[in-house]
Amino acid sequence: MKNIYLLIVFIAVLAVNKAVGQSVPTGARISGKLVDANTGEVIDFATVALYKVGNDNMFKGTSSNDGGVFNLFSVPFGQYSLRISFVGYEKQSIDRIELDATHMVFNVGTVKLKPSGNALSEVVISDKKPQVEYGADQITYNVSESLQAEGAVATDILKNVPMVNVDINGNATIAGKRNTRIFIDGKPSDYMTANITDLLNVLPSDAIDKIEVMTNPPVKYSADGEGIINIVLKKGFKVGLNGTFAITGGSLGNYNINSYASYRTKTLSINSSYAFGESQNIGNSYSLRKNFFPDTLFYRNNYSGRDGNNFGHNFRTGANWDIDSTQNIRISTNLNFNRAGNLSYTDYHYLDNLAVESNLNKQNNSNHSNSFNYVMNADYTWKMSKSGEQLEASAMYSANSSGNNRFLARDYLDGNGLPISSKSPLEQTYDIDGANHGFEFKLDYDKPLKKPKNSISLGMDANLRTNDNDQEVNNYNFITKQYLTNTGLTNRFVFNSNIYSAYASLNLHTTNNWSFRIGGRGELTDMGFTLSSLAQKFNIKPYVNLFPNLSASRMFKEKYTVGLSYSERIARPREFALNPQIETQDSTNISFGNPNLHPSHTQQLDLSFGMFQKMWSIYPRLGYSSTSSIIERLTTVSPTGVSQSTYDNLASSQYYTVNVYGNYRPTKKITLNGGGTVGKVVYETTSVNAVSRNGYSINGRVGMTMDLPQRLAFEGNMSYYSNSSAQGRNAGSVSTSFGMRKVFMKNKLKLRMMAVNPFSNSNSITYTDGINFTRESFNSTRTRNFSMTISYNFTKVGRNTLEKNRKKDEPVPNIQP
To answer: How far is CA 463 from CA 192, 234, 579, in A?
Structure first.
C-alpha cells in the first residue's frame, strides 16, 4: 500500500509541474482546406484523423474550422495517412504523407469532397472500414460494418466475432482460453452485475462501436482472466444530431426495440440509448448416468422440458465535454432491468443393474427472477503537452439487486408409477436475494519519450466490491399445513474483495520497424467472506502477485509482420465457486462451492504472423500456455446415487493452440473472412476423484458479405465449436445465420431479413467421466428463428446546428482555394 501512495504522490507532483510550465510545441505540422467538389463551398466541422502507416489506431485528430481549414500540430516525424469524413460526403484518405527534419510542414492544399455516391479523382478514396481487423494480440470487430448487427443486441453480435464462442446460455468466451473477462469501455463489467448475460441480451447494437478480443491484454488491464472481450460503446463523435431507431420481430415470438441518439456541438456531445427486448427460452434435455461400484451397478436417467420468456430494458446516457483543447470530461450511466419466468418439469428414473425401473420422481418447477443493475462512470483526461503526454483519471460505481424465486412440487412413485405411501410429496420454496455493489478508481499516465514513437505508461487502480447473497428455503409440512424453514439449505453469504494494482509499461520503436513492449503489473488481493450458518469468518490471507508482459514485433516491407509475446495471468476463485451453500435443483443432483480454493496461474506465449496485400490478409498464430491449480467443476457420485458437484484446484495443464484467421476481397463488392482455432490440452492431476486426460478443442468460423444491385446487401456466417474439460468433452455444435438488407430514402431507411439456425435448433451433447460414473447430457434450445428489422437513421447537421462564432483555438494558415 505504501508504494501505491508513493505512486499517487509522484504522478500528482508531475502533473503540478506540467501545469506550471508547459513545454514549447515541437514537431511538424499538417494543414489543408476542405470544400464541396460541386459547389465550392467550404466544409466546416468535418472529421480529420491522422494514422501512422501500418497502425489502425487513430494517432491524432481534429476538425475543420470556419473556412474549412484544419491543422494538426506537433506531429512527430514519420509516415502517415489522413482520413477525412463528414456526413453526406464520401470518406476519403490521403496517403504517403512523410514528415522529417527537411519537411516540417505538409500542406495538402484544397481537398474537394464529393457528396455520397459520386466518385472522386482528386484524392485516394478509402474503402469502408473492414468488418474484422487483425493484430498481433487483438482482433477488432467493427459492428457498424455488419448488417446482421442492425437492430440486434450484444449477444447476437458476439456470435459472429472471430475466436469468440457463445454457449447455449449466452456466456461468451475466447477460443483457446479457459477464463474470459467481459469489459465495457475498458472497464470490468462481469464482476459488476448480477448476471452479465442479462446486460448483453438488451445492450443495443446501435450503441456499440466495436468489439475487441484481446488474447494478450496490455498491463493497464486487470491480470484476472486469460483474455478480455472489450465492448467499446459509441461516444457521439459525429457533429450535429444523429440517431437510429429500430424494431425487430421474429418467428420465435422474440422482439426488441432499439434506439440511439447523439448530439454534438464544438465542445459538448450527448448520447443516449434505450432498448427493450423479449425472448423465449423453450427446450428440452436429458441426462443418462451409469454408476458403478465394486459390488453394484445402477442407472439414473433424467428427462426435462422447459418453457420460459425473458424481458429486459436497458437505458444508457453519457456526456462528453471538451473543457478546452487540453481537458475533457466524460460521464455516463447505465440502467438495466430484467425479468424472467419459466415453467419446467423433470422426470427422474431410478434403474437397477438390469436397467429395470425401481422408482420414479416427477418434479414440476415454477421460476421467477428479476434483476436491476446500475453503473455510473466518470472520466477526466488532461493532455499535458502537444507531444502526446496525458493524464487520465476515472471512477466507476456499480450496484445491483436480484431476486430468484422458485417453487417445486415433487411426487415419489414406485416402479409401476404409483405413489409411495411411506414417502410424502415435497413442496418447497427457494428464494435467493442478492445485493451487490462495487467501486473502481483508475489513474493512467502516458508520456512520449524523446525519440518518436517511444513512450512510457504508468498507472494504478483500486477495485472494491461486496456481494451479498441471502438464500432461504422452506418446506411445506402436510401435517401442520404450514411452511417450515429448511435450516440445512438456508444461509446468507457475504463476500468482500479488494484488489489494488499498479503497472508500468515501456514502448520502444526502432528505425528498422521493430516494436517492443516491456511491462509489468503488480496486484494486491484482499478477500474474505462470512456465512450465517458458521460463527467464523473466512479471511483469505492477502497475497501479492507480479505479472510480466513482454512483446516484440516487426513489419517487413509494409506487407508482413511477425510478433512474439509473453505474459502471466491469474484466475481468482469467484464468489459462487467459494460459497459453500448447498444448492439443490432435484433429488439426485446437488452443488456447492469450495472455500479452500486458491488462485490459478497461467503463463502464455504466442507467436504471430501477418501477411497482407491489397485484396487479402492472413494471420496465423501459434500459442502455448501452462496453467497450475486449474479451477474446474468436479462431479462425484455417492453410493446412494446422488451427484455432488463442487469446484476444486484439480490439475495442471499444457495447452497448445494453432489459430489462422484472414480476409479476402475478390472484388470490391464481396468480402470473405474466417478462420479457426485448434487446441490440444494435456491435463495432469493427482486427485483421486478425477482422471488425467488429454483433449481437443476446435473453433471455426466462415463469413461472407456481398453488396448487390438495387442497394441490396447479403451477409452469411457459419461457426463450429467443441471443447474438452478435465472430466469430459463436448461433441460439438454448429450455428448459422444469414441476412439480407435493402436500403431506401438515401440510406435513411433500412429493411433487414434474418434467418438464424434455419436448418436446426441449437443442440449440445456433453460426455462426463468420473472414477465411478459416466454421463451423457443432451440439451436442445429452440433457436431456429426468422426475423425482420426496420431501422431509420436521422441526421441533422448544418451551420445552424453548431455555434459558428467562436474563438479559434489554433492559428489558421493562409491556404488558397
So the answer is: 10, 25, 21
Beta strands at 227-233 and 180-184: parallel, antiparallel or unpaired: parallel
Domain-terminating residue out of 102, 126, 150: 126
Beta-ladder partners of 685? none
Cell of 281: 427460452
- Which residue's entry shows cell 490471507? 541
Under 8 Å between Cβ of 659 and 676 = yes
541 in a structural domain: yes
Cell of 546: 507480479
Position 316 in a domain: no
Report the C-alpha gap between 601 and 630 in whole angstroms. 8
CA atoms within 13 A on the CB side of 33: 15
Closest CA to 155 of 254, 272, 270: 254
| Domain with 556 in it | 281-310+329-383+390-502+514-794
DSSP letter string, 57-102: SEEEEEE--TTSEEEEEEEPSEEEEEEEE-TTB--EEEEEEEEBTT
| 440 within a domain of the structure (yes/no) | yes
- The Cα 195–Cα 189 span in angstroms is 10
Q: What is d(CA 700, CA 365) in angstroms, rounded to the nearest whole number?
A: 37
pLDDT tens digits, 338-393: 999 999 999 999 999 999 999 999 999 999 999 999 999 999 999 898 778 899 99
The residue with cell 520497424 is 513
Query: Domain with 695 in it: what CATH number?
Result: 2.40.170
The CATH number covering residue 38 comes to 2.60.40.10
Question: C-alpha grid cell for residue 265?
Answer: 456541438
pLDDT for residue 737: 92
Of 74, 94, 126, the position where a domain reaches its end is: 126
- Number of domains the chain is built from: 2
Q: In whole angstroms, give the CA distance from residue 631 to residue 629.
A: 6
pTM equals 0.77
Q: Between these two residues, 330 and 134, which has the higher pLDDT value?
A: 330
In a domain, 306, yes or no: yes
Three cell numbers, residue 626: 501452462
pLDDT tier, 27 (very low <50, low <70, confident <90, very high otherwise): low
**Which class for 85: exposed (0-12), middle (13-18), buried (19 or more C-beta within 10 A)?**
middle
Q: Which of 138, 37, 90, 4 is nearest to 526 (CA)?
A: 4
